[in-house]
Amino acid sequence: MDKIEIQPLNITDAYMTYFFPFSFREKERKELMAQLEKNHYTFFTLDNEELQDKYYGENINISHEELDQFFLPFIEDKLFPPSIKNRGFLRYSKVIKDSFVYEVHDNKLNFIINSMDIVLCPFGIGIITIRVAMDQEQETLTNLLDCIDHFCVLEPKLPKDKGAKIHHDGKVFNNTNELVFDYICLPLKPYIIHNEKLAGYYGSLPYFEDERMHTSVFLIADDKTEITKDQLFRLAHLDGKDIDGNAFISSSNPEYVNRYVDARIHDRWAPHTYTISSEHTQVTISNKKKEQLKQSVSQFMSVHYYNLMLHYYYKIILLKVSYEHSEVSWAKDKRYVEELIELISKFYSRYYFEEVSARTEGKELTQKLREVFRLQDLFDEVRQTVDDLYKAQNNQASKRRNSLLFMLTIFTVVSGIYGMNLVIEDWKGKTDWSKVPGYSFFEWISLITALTGIGLAIAIIGYTTCKGIYDRYRKWKRDKS
């Protein structure tokens, strides 16, 4: 078996988009939106054409018309709601344009954070988007991947993830978490839900995988260099350097590398441009001249950004439902089960669609994302969850109905035996309770049956009324979607 030789590659331009999911309370949505507007975030709409060149970097313009045409109509009105009163993905954007230096493994990378989005998605899920561009003439692929890989990790815990620092205006941030939540995204911090049993901001999403931000990358390589499969494999895994600082590839089997790349590559524009998708990143790399890639970079910032964000959201919601189903206590969480069923039904009917684009390339990239995110497997699991929940709810409802029917049957039988003579003469007019101790056996049965029946009727009416009021209160208080 041949050893994999790592081919060097110089990168002249790099654009990175980092996605960080979080959870917030729906009842605080309006308050959160007001806070974002107060901190100079702008609500994004397609009608506002002034935003086409505002957030994406120098000399990069996106086309709102292309965004409008790329997605199918039933997806478009969810992704681009015209006002904050509409349901869907409410995007708030802010220009940053600050310069930073990322230092790791004796390697320094100059970069600019051009802008950031905070997207408030349905069902209390939000996504922070950070747009970053390399701010130097050239960097090796190895050094660049090493920086991207470390930047993705919010709170480094493993030895291989530690050691990075971010410098800005005399300040030093020891990890990405400090940069995001103590500097560029400070207004959002109070609104993130935390699970106190879990450390860090990923306590907000205890079902999420690997505590890494998802990354979308567009790289422009030296136009005199061929793009090889080992480079594509390293891009998919963000293989930069090992713990000793040497160039690294996370496989020793060339055949495995070939199979992996062939299964995940989108090579419509080969041999000059490729897109490869994995569980934690989607990377487009091209060795064309920068002047020839204006349209491609624009699409990376627009239609491909929204396509990736939508499917990333699908993955998060499906993981959320699977996790919450596993946490349900059937004996105590009957109403929560009903709400979980309602959430699944609303998500499936309003937001989850297998086809989202009318264009051939959009369909191809969508299929790759569905495969790497395992959306079909997760959806099948959720569909089984719905079936299990419905069966459990029906079984519980049947038991309650049978218990009530049993009690009512007893009263019906006793009343039937007595016929029309269930009422005792002493009960007519003013009741003389002093005669009760002298009742006969059958009169005692009549008394107990009557009082118990009246008590049961009052209890049923009271329970039904209180349950209705409480359910209305929960519905008012609960997250609105």
What does this entry look like structurally?
By secondary structure, the protein is of the alpha+beta class. It has a domain at 10-329. It is 43% helix and 18% strand. The chain contains 13 helices and 12 strands. Strands 1, 2, 3, 4, 5, 6, 7, 8, 9, 10, 11 and 12 form a 12-stranded mixed β-sheet that branches. Strand 7 and strand 8 form a beta hairpin. Helix 10 (334-350) packs across helix 12 (375-418). The protein starts with 9 loop residues before the first strand and ends with a helix.
Task: Characterize the biggest β-sheet.
Answer: 12 strands, mixed
Overall number of strands: 12
Binned strand content: 15-25%
- Low-pLDDT windows of residues: 196-203
What value does the average pLDDT take? 84
**Rg calc:** 31 Å
Helix content: 40-55%
Q: Note the overall shape.
A: elongated
List keywords for this structure.
18% strand; 12-stranded mixed beta sheet; alpha+beta; 13 helices; 481 residues; elongated
Layout of helices and strands:
Layout: E1 10-23, H1 29-38, E2 42-43, H2 64-70, H3 73-79, E3 90-104, E4 107-120, E5 125-134, E6 139-140, H4 141-152, E7 165-168, E8 171-173, H5 176-184, E9 214-221, H6 229-237, H7 254-264, E10 265-266, E11 273-277, E12 281-286, H8 294-301, H9 303-327, H10 334-350, H11 360-372, H12 375-418, H13 441-477
Parallel strand pairs: 9-12
Antiparallel strand pairs: 1-5, 1-6, 1-9, 2-3, 3-4, 3-7, 4-5, 7-8, 10-11, 11-12
Helix pairs in contact: 6-7, 8-9, 9-10, 9-11, 9-12, 10-12
Transmembrane segments: 404-424, 444-470
Organism: Psychrobacillus psychrotolerans
Keywords: Membrane, Transmembrane, Transmembrane helix
